[in-house]
Write a structure and sequence with these properties.
By secondary structure, the chain is mostly helical. Helices cover 74% and strands 4% of the residues. A three-stranded mixed beta sheet has the order 4-3-5. A two-stranded antiparallel sheet has the order 1-2. Helix 4 runs antiparallel to helix 6, helix 8 packs antiparallel against helix 9 and helix 9 packs antiparallel against helix 10. The termini are far apart. 37% of the residues are buried.
């Protein structure tokens, strides 16, 4: 296999090593990831459409949840189709331009998702700690601004990652030991001293993940203290909602902190940990937010079951009159 393809003094494509060269294992992974991807698409589209087609869209928490589902779809779609396709071919190549695009989209949509999770934590803090002022504080204008800030934060996080990746010179091996393009794996194949860029990656990705995680955990600790003054039913409902949020936060942030908040190097285990924030968290988000949420389950039942029975009634009516 030719792995050192050079174009105008620079590598024009990379070879993604992925998980294994064994064809049987690759086929098994392909079926597994295809199932996971379809589950992510179906689950998040169900949540997105159920919220948009019901009165829940006017509630701040579900407004943010609809945006979170959108980001899950976009975030996973920046990696998964390419990964599934690579598992079906021998040469897992990606062009230089598409590799840089993948670096940007991964960090852009991932950054937006992080900040939307922060907005959701702020929403729960206001709802539980300042219930009398909730509708004033979390008005629709402020919700729009928080989502806009999440998009701005995602861009502010992603563009430095892209510029760092573009600045790397590649003149040797083009084999990237990962299943998608990211700055840290690219540092291993760059033909220059990457210490400074490695520190910048830790500062940009690792510290962002850590600070956001600490803020989120702090907000939920304050919520737990506030719940002591609530009724048993109020505590149960609040804990159920916050428990869902905390589960999502842990699934997403714990692996990301492990990968990005350490000296700039890569390990084979990084690919396994990356599965948590590229596959597992987006796949479980719909389950976490629906199975433990009565309002969400009722909305889905009203939107989808009511539509089904209405169509069935129309069909029966036409048959009876024919």
């Amino acid at each position: 296999m030719e792995t050192n393809i050079v174009h105008q003094g620079n590598i024009s494509e990379f070879i993604l090593l992925g998980f294994s060269y064994d064809s049987n294992i690759q086929l098994s992974f392909c079926v597994l990831f295809l199932f996971c991807y379809l589950s992510i698409l179906v689950g998040n589209f169900l949540i997105l459409l159920s919220i948009r087609c019901s009165s829940l869209f006017h509630q701040p928490m579900y407004y943010f949840l609809s945006h979170l589902s959108s980001m899950d779809i976009c975030y996973t779609s920046s990696v998964t189709p390419k990964l599934i396709g690579d598992l079906l071919v021998e040469k897992k190549s990606i062009s230089y331009g598409n590799c840089m695009l993948q670096v940007f989209t991964m960090h852009f949509f991932g950054g937006i998702e992080i900040f939307i999770l922060t907005a959701m934590a702020f929403d729960r803090y206001v709802a539980i700690c300042k219930p009398l002022h909730y509708m004033i504080i979390m008005n629709r204008t402020r919700c729009h601004l928080l989502v806009l800030a999440a998009w701005a934060g995602g861009a502010a996080h992603a563009f430095p990652q892209l510029f760092m990746a573009i600045s790397l010179p590649f003149c040797g091996s083009n084999e990237v030991d990962h299943y998608f393009c990211d700055v840290l794996p690219l540092l291993k194949v760059a033909c220059t001293d990457t210490y400074i860029i490695g520190v910048l990656v830790v500062a940009n990705s690792g510290l962002v993940a850590l600070v956001t995680f600490v803020v989120l955990v702090g907000s939920y600790v304050i919520i737990l203290f506030t719940l002591r003054n609530h009724s048993a039913e109020g505590r149960r409902k609040a804990l159920s909602t916050c428990g869902s949020h905390v589960t999502v936060v842990l699934l997403f942030f714990a692996p990301a902190i492990f990968v990005y908040l350490r000296p700039p190097t890569t390990f084979p285990e990084d690919k396994i940990f990356a599965l948590f924030y590229t596959f597992i968290a987006p796949m479980f988000n719909p389950l976490i937010y629906t199975l433990r949420n009565t309002e969400m389950k009722n909305a889905m039942r009203n939107v989808w079951c009511q539509d089904y029975f209405q169509k069935k009634h129309v069909i029966n009516f036409k048959i009876s009159n024919s």
